[in-house]
Design goal:
The complex is a heterodimer of chains A (about 325) and B (about 350). With about 325 residues, chain A is mainly alpha-helical. Chain A has helices at about 5, 25-55, 60, 75-80, 90-100, 105-115, 125-155, 160-170, 175-190, 195-220, 225-235, 240-250, 250-265, 270-275, 285, 300-320, 320-325, and strands at about 85, 115-120, 290, 295. Chain A folds into three domains: about 5-55; about 75-120, no CATH class; about 125-325, MetI-like fold, CATH 1.10.3720.10. Chain A is built from 17 helices and four strands. Chain B is about 25% helix and about 35% strand. In chain B, a hairpin with a 3-residue loop joins strand 12 and strand 13 (about 255-260). The chains are: A mainly alpha (about 325), B alpha+beta (about 350). The interface of A and B includes residues 227, 231, 233, 234 and 331 of A.
Chain lengths: ~325, ~350
């Protein structure tokens, strides 16, 4: 059998590729690699999948052993997650069944009724999701806004003690959250920020700021100064130049920074657990503590986690175009 | 259009001079080229005129108005960058409109001005495209259009052709010169390419080591370089420079060569004085009866002529231009003459040119 080195590939190569990458051995390696990547990805997705099916299982199916993959899906978990319920007295149950027959009950009320319960209102989890949205959203907006301004200044101007300042900003991120929570807790309690929205927004903003500043500085560093200089001689002030030339070109950087800050603020657990109790508690610490009267409500926990993932997925998908870098590059040859 | 005047303008970075005190007057409508190797201060000078760089000392006057500390946007000067600096997120039309919008022009005025300038540069078909999709030459045309559309007091260009291919560079050179003459635009043009400088400039300012070495017309700097730096820097290859000593009406040159001093020089050169003889390759003529001897070290074909590298002795290699079609084998002994009108002398101590008395 003649070797590949003598005969070359069987078909003409019509793509840009290194010589040794087209040998049969290399092609096979490539295929194996692709299979491995797909397998690893699938393994990684198993917990998500388990979470997804658990969210729609009944209390009995959740604890079945071996676990059920095929089952009758139910919205029980979601009802448990979002509502407060009370046992309905037998007379009241009759009344409700009558309403159900007339089609006056919505699907959630029917599910509650199936286990003899009546929905009495929204669960505290609803308020905690709203807290999460408020705190993560506002703190992200703040840290990105401040990060853009500070990153630009660090990138373009010679500031006294610039390197020390940058290092200081970075150093705020060096201690793990668990180390600083106790002193922070004491300080927060002293100044009345404990369990307040303002306190959590400030905390997340400061924690994200170092990241935002460094990231935005990197993005601004990559935008050549010529654009700004051109705009300056074209008759614009520094601020106008920033708004009309620099900002549009740093959109991908701003998008990336926003996503990272948002994911941090949205997922944060340790601070939220320590610094909040009722009023400003966010979703992450409340999901695992969802223990019902009859034991751990796994379906509710899974439903909560699933719902918690959705905003992050939406944001990342919406901004994925900007997350792929290099959109604005190419007009300057370097 | 405007006159630009630099009075004792200097720039220091810490203790190091980027530009030593410099005086320069650029009259209305002149095309002046700042020429020099990289790091000589030419770009810094240009940026100081534009206001993108502050001066350490001195004054810059535009039409007799002191603009030294004026914001770049208030100087009414256009700047063309080497890498074009077209705003990548704006279309070509909006790029060109950008400086007009800064002045708050009305939309129909902007449209009219854009129309004129794109016709002038023949880039109407590019208006809708994004800068990223243009070729180098077209990018530079758009950059020129953006500079022209404002009708500024003066144009500053920082190696605008440096990023283009050789072929295109020549075309654009002529285009820019055409435009400049048609608009009678005061232009300061920075380049390190002496051919470009010679081809385009009304006047060339040769800079090196933060100092102006010579300012003059292309003919002046080419034929009468003020010092050894200019002699070497201008021309490709530069002027031949040979160490010699003057005695008894002749200059002793390496390889037992004697060069008879032409008339008019003798009074300005003292006896036994060491000096440097300079002549351009085209001022020497290979000639069987020539006074100077050497042997051929290498011979390059240049199409319309041959360039001979002739070794006079040791490392003293000079370049001579020989007729197309002649052939001198490597190692052959040849004789040559130097046109007495075209020979120049330099003082080896201070490196300055000696003048006919």
């Amino acid at each position: 059998m003649s070797s590949f080195a003598e005969t070359g590939p069987r078909r003409p190569v019509t793509e840009s590729i290194r010589v040794d990458k087209v040998s049969p051995g290399a092609r096979a390696t490539g295929a194996v690699r692709a299979v491995v990547v797909v397998l690893v990805a699938l393994i990684m997705l198993i917990p998500i999948f388990v979470m997804l099916i658990t969210a729609f299982k009944t209390r009995i199916d959740v604890t079945a052993s071996p676990p059920k993959v095929f089952f009758q899906p139910t919205l029980e978990g979601i009802v448990l997650l979002f509502t407060n319920r009370a046992i309905a007295a037998p007379g009241r149950q009759e009344e409700l069944r009558q309403l159900a027959r007339e089609g006056k009950l919505n699907i959630f009320e029917q599910i509650a009724l199936d286990s003899g319960q009546e929905i009495t209102g929204a669960s505290p989890y609803v308020g905690r999701i709203i807290n999460s949205l408020l705190i993560a959203g506002i703190s992200t907006a703040l840290s990105v806004f401040l990060g853009v301004l500070a990153g630009y200044a660090f990138s373009r101007f010679s500031l006294p003690g610039k390197d020390d300042l940058l290092f200081f900003i970075l150093s705020t991120r060096m201690l793990p959250a668990i180390v600083v929570t106790i002193p922070l807790f004491l300080m927060f309690r002293q100044v009345g920020l404990y369990d307040s929205h303002l306190g959590m927004i400030l905390l997340y903003t400061v924690f994200n700021l170092s990241f935002a500043v460094w990231l935005m500085k990197g993005f601004f560093d990559e935008i050549p100064r010529e654009y700004e200089e051109a705009a300056l001689v074209d008759g614009y002030s520094r601020l106008e130049t920033f708004r009309k030339i620099v900002l549009p070109q740093s959109l991908s950087g701003i998008a990336a920074t926003t996503v990272f800050c948002l994911i941090f603020a949205w997922n944060e657990y340790a601070f939220a657990l320590m610094m909040t109790s009722e009023k400003a508690r966010t979703a992450p610490p409340s999901i695992p503590s969802m223990i019902g009267r009859g034991g751990v409500e796994w379906a509710a926990i899974a439903a909560g986690s699933l719902g918690f993932l959705i905003p992050v997925i939406i944001i990342v998908f919406a901004l994925r175009k900007y997350l792929l870098r290099g959109v604005t590059f190419g007009a300057i040859r370097q | 259009m405007a006159t630009i005047e630099l009075k004792q303008v200097e720039k220091r970075f810490g203790e190091a001079y980027a530009v030593k005190p410099l005086d320069l007057t650029i009259p209305d409508g002149e095309f002046i080229v700042l020429l020099g190797p990289s790091g000589c201060g030419k770009t810094t000078t240009l940026r100081m005129i534009s206001g993108l760089e502050t001066v350490t000392a001195g004054q810059i006057l535009l039409n007799d108005k002191n603009v030294t500390w004026l914001h770049p946007s208030a100087r009414d000067i256009a700047f063309v960058f080497q890498f074009y600096a077209l705003y990548p997120h704006l279309s070509v039309r909006n790029n060109i409109a950008f400086p007009l919008q800064a002045q708050g022009e009305k939309k129909d005025v902007i449209d009219e001005r854009i129309k004129q300038v794109v016709e002038l540069l023949r880039i109407e078909h590019l208006l809708g495209s994004r800068p990223g999709s243009l070729s180098g030459g077209d990018k530079q045309r758009v950059a020129l259009a953006r500079a022209l559309v404002r009708r500024p007091q003066a144009f500053l260009m920082d190696e605008p052709l440096g990023a283009l291919d050789a072929d295109l560079r020549e075309t654009m050179r002529a285009e820019i010169r055409q435009l400049q003459l048609r608009l009678n635009a005061t232009t300061v043009y920075v380049t390190h390419d002496q051919i470009e400088a010679m081809a385009m400039g009304d006047r060339i300012v040769v800079m090196s080591a933060a100092v102006v070495q010579q300012a003059g017309t292309p003919t002046e700097v080419y034929y009468n370089p003020a010092n050894l730096f200019v002699a070497k820097f201008i021309g490709s290859p530069g002027m031949n420079l040979v160490q010699g000593a003057f005695a008894d009406g002749a200059v002793r040159l390496p390889g037992d060569n004697q060069y008879l001093m032409p008339d008019g020089w003798k009074n300005s050169i003292a006896r036994n004085e060491n000096l440097i003889v300079g002549f351009r390759p085209e001022s020497a003529h290979v000639n069987a009866e020539g006074a100077l001897r050497g042997n051929v070290y290498a011979s390059d074909m240049h199409g319309s002529y041959n360039m001979l590298h002739v070794n006079m002795q040791g490392d003293h290699v000079v370049h001579l231009r020989a007729e197309r079609g002649t052939h001198y084998p490597i190692g052959a002994n040849i004789r040559f003459d130097i046109d007495p009108e075209m020979v120049r002398f330099f003082n080896p101590q201070n490196e300055m040119a000696l003048r006919k008395n």
